[in-house]
Design a protein that fits this description.
Strand order of the largest sheet: 3-2-1-4-5-6-7
Number of helices: 14
CATH class of the largest domain: Alpha Beta
Strand content: 15-25%
Radius of gyration: 21 Å
Shape: globular
Largest sheet: 7 strands, parallel
Number of strands: 14
Structural class: alpha/beta
CATH architecture of the largest domain: 3-Layer(aba) Sandwich
Length: 393
């Protein structure tokens, strides 16, 4: 089958998940055209280099700017407005290329990406959504994790709802499983990169800190005060990393603080052997920590409600702790609770990608047979369904 696959470029979690699904589809003999924006473009080009049945097109996508662990709405709006003319021209060029080069996709898959979705809608091609974001709108959430009256929750829910409306089916990845409230929705465990699936947990003494927001400089002095070894990854760490000495050893700052350069292998090794991890509320790292049973202190980026929802479920399940801001006392309380978090994580049953990929195969087969959108899938799934779903959208 010919498949058009769209990957949003804001946040690398979408790219790492899509890489797994794309490699699976290629292994099944399908032909793919990928449209992707941002840093995810380079990642997928590097990962899929040499694959004969795939072509990758770079498109323009919206980006967010941050300041002190908060979305800077003004700067984000200004930057996107400045880039809009060039971005629109680029996307039109790619649209024409895909439409006119004879590829003729039979199915569209979107990981929260709008370009491919609109292409599918305009050409009346079934669209399958594969992401973690749709859990905001397509599941029921109790007041213990979110105040349903809150403006932030309702706004985030609406934004997700209008992103990919009327898809053929929604495959939602999650480490928590609230009741599904809408039809054509399947919950499955997180889709994890092979490096995480191959890792084995061996708890050590160090704490991994992942800083996804470059401007969150308040975090660095705080962790220097901790009386445990700390290994820092992320944008701020990349800037702070000193030049490596001639013998290749990494320097440490702040006593027990070591700034790590980017390395996928090194990060997985540090994560699997960590006592705990301190990071934002991004789904990808959080699901990896849960899978490896590493306690996590989550500090979501302010203004990204999906991250807060992830963090609240993390705390509800006992897998970690949620904080709106960091201070030394909060970090020390978390480190004192890591044993309790580890105990709760023992109840989590890690899963490989077979369940999610079986569902992908079923959806591809149903589209190939020309079947109408399935209310439920026959493949093994988690989370269940509700017969009295409120809507079929």
């Amino acid at each position: 089958m010919r498949i058009l696959y769209g990957v949003v470029g804001e946040g690398m979690g979408h790219a790492t998940r899509s890489r797994v699904v794309i490699e699976h589809l290629l292994g099944r003999g399908h032909e793919l055209r990928i449209v992707v924006s941002g840093h995810a473009h380079r990642f997928l080009v590097d990962r899929l280099r040499g694959e004969p049945r795939v072509a990758i097109e770079e498109i323009h996508g919206l980006t967010l700017s941050y300041e002190d662990n908060e979305v800077d709405l003004g700067e984000s709006l200004l930057h996107n407005l400045e880039e809009a003319p060039r971005g629109l021209l680029r996307n039109i060029q790619v649209y024409r290329k895909v439409a006119e080069d004879g590829f003729a996709p039979e199915l569209v898959v979107s990981d929260f990406e709008s370009w491919a979705y609109f292409y599918g809608v305009n050409h009346r091609i079934p669209v399958v959504s594969i992401d973690n974001m749709q859990i905001l709108d397509r599941c029921q959430h109790g007041l213990e994790v979110t105040d349903w009256k809150s403006f932030d929750f309702r706004l985030a829910k609406l934004a997700v709802k209008v992103k990919l409306p009327g898809a053929y089916h929604y495959l939602v990845t999650s480490f928590f499983f609230p009741p599904v409230r809408k039809r054509r929705t399947t919950l499955v465990p997180p889709i994890l990169r092979p490096e995480i699936l191959a890792a084995r947990r061996e708890p050590g003494e160090h704490v991994v800190v992942y800083q996804s927001v470059k401007s969150n400089q308040a975090l660095l002095p705080m962790i220097a005060e901790l009386e445990v070894p700390v290994r820092v990854y992320g944008r701020g760490a990349a800037d702070a990393t000193p030049r490596r000495p001639p013998d290749g050893r990494e320097r440490a700052r702040g006593g027990g603080v070591t700034f790590r350069p980017f390395s996928e292998t090194g990060f997985v090794e540090d994560l699997r052997t960590a006592r705990a991890v301190i990071a934002g509320g991004g789904f990808s790292l959080m699901s990896e920590a849960v899978h490896l049973r590493v306690p996590m202190l989550s500090v979501p980026i302010e203004g990204q409600y999906e991250q807060e929802l992830n963090a609240r479920y993390l705390e509800k399940l006992g897998y970690g702790r949620f904080a709106t801001a960091l201070d030394p006392a909060t970090i020390r309380r978390f480190l004192a609770d890591t044993a309790a978090c580890t105990g709760a994580l023992e109840a989590y049953e890690p899963a490989d990608n077979s369940m999610a990929l079986d569902c992908v195969d079923e959806l591809v087969a149903r589209v190939a047979r020309g079947e109408p959108p399935p209310v439920r899938l026959q493949s093994a799934s988690m989370g269940g369904y509700q017969d009295d779903a409120t809507t079929d959208s």
